[in-house]
Amino acid sequence: MKKATVVVIGGGQMGRALVGGMLASGFAAAEQITIVDPSPDSRQWWASQHPTVGFRDRLGGDDAQADIFLLAVKPHLVPQVAAEIAGLVDQTKLVISIAAGVSLQTLCEHVGHERVIRVMPNTPSLVGAGASAFCVGPGATEEDCRWIEQALAGIGTVARVAESQMDAVTGLSGSGPAYICLVIEALADGGVLAGLPRQLAMTLAAQTVMGTAKMVMESGRHPGELKDAVASPGGTTIAALKVLEERGLRAALINAVETSARRSGELG
Ligand SMILES: NC(=O)C1=CN([C@@H]2O[C@H](COP(=O)(O)OP(=O)(O)OC[C@H]3O[C@@H](n4cnc5c(N)ncnc54)[C@H](O)[C@@H]3O)[C@@H](O)[C@H]2O)C=CC1
Ligand SMILES: O=C(O)[C@@H]1CCC=N1
């Protein structure tokens, strides 16, 4: 289904990251994609950034020809949008949702069939460095699974998981870019406090986060071991690590992931 046509319903932050990533990776061409979004701001963004991608204010008869419907609206809008799709097409169409917390069962109920897939992507998909997980409904075919796996593999890492793990994925990698941006911003603030110009501080902070993540992934070594390699006896790093332990950074991050995961369950 590599050349499948896709209607993306909701062209906001995540719709932009996913479609932008799929176009940049070459997985999809602009003419395979139509965005449906009632927002004038959204229309303007798509016209300026991806003028060759189709754009409509609302679902219409032409969209019934599409092979795949990808729901990228807020979770509370999923029932309404899924019902609109159900009124337009039959079971030959694959329906994919990226909405946090919305279960496969809820999707099936509103779309009227079981050929559905639930995905939790994240915003770094836009730059080909996403982390996504997906689970599939009982009516999804092997070809559907291959399509979503290839689409997501082109924009980062992808894992197929049990639906019971989707809230945890949301708490970790779905929400995670926000935690890391907060860390980068705070590290840069620390650099400014210590006397660096803002732009240099931001570059050093972001590169340090990216380089460390790359080292963890490519070396296969435990992060604790890599941390130990930075901390010289009696040196600067161990003094700073003591502050982070005293202020509870580990517990704060663990609680953040757990709280986001719980909230994902509530949204459903
Ligand atoms: N932002 C993120 O990092 C992530 C978001 N998600 C999920 O993606 C979904 C979308 O989130 P965002 O992109 O952040 O929200 P957003 O608010 O940026 O985008 C939603 C878009 O839907 C449009 N919209 C509203 N009603 C519509 C309708 N009836 N038909 C078509 N479009 C409509 C809005 O105009 C807006 O452009 C949510 O369900 C969220 O849980 C999942 C993973 C990460
Ligand atoms: O904040 C949210 O609800 C969405 C889901 C994961 C990331 N953003």
From TrEMBL:
One of its GO terms (cellular component) is cytoplasm. Keywords: Amino-acid biosynthesis, Cytoplasm, NADP, Oxidoreductase, Proline biosynthesis. Residues 163-267 form the Pyrroline-5-carboxylate reductase dimerisation domain. The keyword Cytoplasm applies. Residues 6-101 form the Pyrroline-5-carboxylate reductase catalytic N-terminal domain. The keyword Oxidoreductase applies. GO terms for biological process: L-proline biosynthetic process. SUPFAM superfamilies: 6-phosphogluconate dehydrogenase C-terminal domain-like, NAD(P)-binding Rossmann-fold domains. It is an enzyme of class 1 (oxidoreductase). NADP(+) binds at residues 9-14, 72-75. It is found in: Cytoplasm. GO terms for molecular function: pyrroline-5-carboxylate reductase activity. InterPro entries: 6-PGluconate_DH-like_C_sf, NAD(P)-bd_dom_sf, P5C_Rdtase_cat_N, P5CR-like_CS, P5CR_dimer, Pyrroline-COOH_reductase. Pathway: Amino-acid biosynthesis; L-proline biosynthesis; L-proline from L-glutamate 5-semialdehyde: step 1/1. NCBIfam families: proC. Belongs to the pyrroline-5-carboxylate reductase family. This is Pyrroline-5-carboxylate reductase.
